[in-house]
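Review box. Two proteins, two foldings.
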Amino acid sequence: MTSPDSPAAVVDHDAIFRDVVARFGGERAICVGFPYWRAFNLRRFLAPWQAVRLAEDVPAAAALAPGPADALIWWGCEVPAELQTLAADRGCRLLRIEDGFYRSVGLGSDYIPPLSLIFDASGLYFDARQSSDLEHILNTAEFTGAELARAAAVRGMIVDGGLTKYNLSRPGHSDWPSGGREVVLVVGQVEDDASILHGCADVASNHALLEAARRDHPDAMLIYKPHPEVEAGNRKGLLGGDGLADRVEYAAAIASCIDASDTVVTMTSQAGFEALLRGKRVEVHGRPFYAGWGLTHDRLVIPRRDRALSLEALVAGALIRYPVYWDPVAKRLTTVETVLCRLKDQRDRLAAKGRLARLRSGDLARRIRKLRVVRARLSEALRRG
């Protein structure tokens, strides 16, 4: 395991904390409508505020009399109009939060806490109906040479380590018998995901995506990779290939599937971003954060995104400037590089012990984790007296 004093962790953590406080912090973080397990799993990211309060709903948040030094925090992009009105009337900040791009070893829907998180004051990166802080960064930021060099190194860590958002499998070698045909990877998604609901048009389901991929690549070998949350039975989506795919790939890690492909076809999946990092052609039927910058082959127009970016600039904006990261070993806010090291270490240790596959075991394991969260929260409450 990488230790707290390893090169990956030799950073000025006090400076990172001060930066996050300057960006987001204040007197109180008022988390509205959070389930108990989410509040418990995210508490570590709320250290930049002097106090944290939980409010069951908007009236309960209003009863706390929020003021200009407070932040109202909502999970996801569907912020109630009443909460927006409360923030405007009281002059306090409204922040939307969501998982970061390199999140964990295991699924969020299985109650596994994240190592990266997004705080966004204007939108969220997956909601194409309006701009987000990330889109503003990518549209306007001037990245230094040092930042771009750092971004290139971060890209190398991700690719060399075979890292993805959930890291449910150790990467290996996939070699499908294509007979010399183009290999096209079609990435399945959760079909009621907000990024599809708010970022797609005609192609807004896995079946429609497969149809589009077959139409655009009639002679190719089509590989369909279902979403891990669908495989786990946690979310809605397509498991089979509906007769349109030459192969449905369950066993191989998504990083291995990308490596073995010539082209990746997606609606809004982060796998498209990961394919860009690996130098693949990416065809996009939605409006994900990485489309519209001249790096992808886009089927939809995104007029707000009005400049071309290098891949290093995209990485610098999306992975270095935008998220907040937590080091579970040193137990402090940290850098993307440290989190990438932690994710690789944890994934490889679990794989070596034969325990990585248990993270994909479905509902029973999910319930056990939920009980563990409840027990941990009760223990913490008892300690505080």
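Next protein.
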Amino acid sequence: MRIYISVLLVIFFFGNFLSVVFGQEATSTSPQTELQSKIQERTRQLEEINGKLKEAEKNLSETQNQRQTLQNQVKIYQNTINQLNLNINNDNVSIQKLSLEVESLNYDLRDIQESIDNKKIAINKLLVEIQKNDYENSNLLAVFLKSKTLADGVMEAQSLVNIRSQLDDDIQNLSTLSEQYTSKIQDKNGKISETEIRKNNLSARKSIVAGQKEEQQTLLTQTRERESVYQKQLSDIYALQEKVAAEIEEMDRQLRQNIDPSLLPPTDPNTFLNPVPAAYLTQGYGSTSFALRNYRGKWHNGIDLGAPLGTEIFAAADGVVINVGNQDKFCPKAGYGKFVVIKHNNGLTTLYAHMSLYVVSIGDKVSRGQLIGYVGRTGYATGPHTHLTVFASQTLTPARSGYPEGAKPSSCGPTPVGGDLNPLLYVSVRK
């Protein structure tokens, strides 16, 4: 009796031990599950950041539409810096998420590779079985003739059919697994490339934030935080803006008359990539209402693409960078500010102006869609945007495209000028 009770106690305690051990194993999470949980958390964080970004953009837009005062300008700087910091946070979290997704894909690739190896082993075994039974040279009639009974013949024939069917299935599954593996590799490489882009954007936006803080401090130092001094500065800037715009328009007007239409490519809105895909058209080409009110020449030689400061700018097509510059060194807040000029092989040249930062140099060969800089509000800009001008390349010379040894408008140093065309003939943008 005692022995019986002792056995029951052992079984009871051993059973509890097993339930605890296996219960823990059942409730423990796998690395893949933990990764997915972390990825979901980063996704939630990004959604939260994007919500804050929309609110920051709304606040900045409202501030920019208010009357220009020193206090309001300081507020614009603060809102811009806040927006950029949110973008930096977005980049940081996105990099973390991409890293987790790459790690998760590595697990998927390992599992698929294991399945591929197992499937190859299974196929090899089937091939050995076929060879052993000389099935490759057999047919159903031969199978029945060799069999002692009809039942044996039916069973052997069915076995032959089953093996061949299994071989077909395994080969198809192996093909599917190989396709999945290739797809996962492409996905992984895409995420690695996106990670590098995010890291570059992160570094650039940190630099832009530093620039905005410096501009804000310079403004406060120059005005001594007095509204009257700021308004005097504004008056001087308006006068310089009008003078520079008139000088540029006069040179462009003369060069427009030199355009030979036969040397231009056919008009096609797909000729160029929209250099700021996330942007909206905020001012068109030619005698726009803004140009009629604010430019002495009454002409806008390009289009304006409005987007938050720090948004990426891409090359509209393959080409060579023939000029970069910063007109704020010569005429602060009056010219193109920081700009890039790219000559393409189709008879057209593009100018990208008011950048906060450019990341290319003269002589660089660029590809369609390659990052060349970031949206800003340098030069004559009432808000963050990219000004895009399309020149007829035939009207450009090194001097006219703004090389240092070239002709210089007296008010704004080396300036890109040429015979301008309506960009909307060659690029499609959101309105």
